[in-house]
């Protein structure tokens, strides 16, 4: 197997990981920042106050985007299986 092909597969895998995890990470970051600003302005220092909004927000994004995420992962996996089949035929 050529190194360029392996590098291309690795690059595609990293892009898929970023696409799939990006929305959840962005929501967690935004909610953490919003709760942090709220805590700083009201001087409430409760550790669980940051956890619950992040958990709910990430769970909502996961429920909403799960079909799209699964589609992306299945497409990538099918592409890998087709590539394995092509490499097997070449040899």
Question: Which helices and strands occur, and which strands form pairs?
Answer:
Layout: H1 3-42, H2 48-90
Helix pairs in contact: 1-2
Low-confidence stretches: none
Strand content: under 5%
Give the mean pLDDT.
90
Q: Cα-atom Rg, whole angstroms?
A: 20 Å
Please report the total strand number as a whole number.
0
Count of helical regions: 2
Shape from CA axes? Answer: elongated
Amino-to-carboxy terminus distance: 10 Å
Largest sheet: none
Structural class: mainly alpha
Helix content: over 70%
Please provide the ordered H/E string of secondary-structure elements: HH
3D architecture notes:
The protein is 91% helix and 0% strand. Helix 1 packs antiparallel against helix 2. The mean pLDDT is 90.
How is this structure best summarized?
The chain has 91 residues and is mostly helical. 91% of the residues lie in helices and 0% in strands.
Features:
single chain, 91 residues, mainly alpha, elongated
């Amino acid at each position: 197997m050529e190194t360029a092909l392996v590098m291309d597969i690795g690059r595609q895998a990293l892009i898929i990981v970023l696409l799939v995890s990006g929305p959840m990470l962005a929501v967690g970051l935004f909610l953490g920042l919003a709760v942090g600003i709220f805590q700083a302005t009201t001087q409430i220092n409760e550790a669980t106050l940051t956890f619950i909004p992040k958990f709910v927000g990430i769970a909502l994004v996961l429920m909403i985007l799960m079909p799209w995420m699964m589609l992306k992962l299945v497409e990538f996996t099918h592409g890998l299986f087709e590539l394995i089949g092509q490499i097997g035929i070449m040899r």
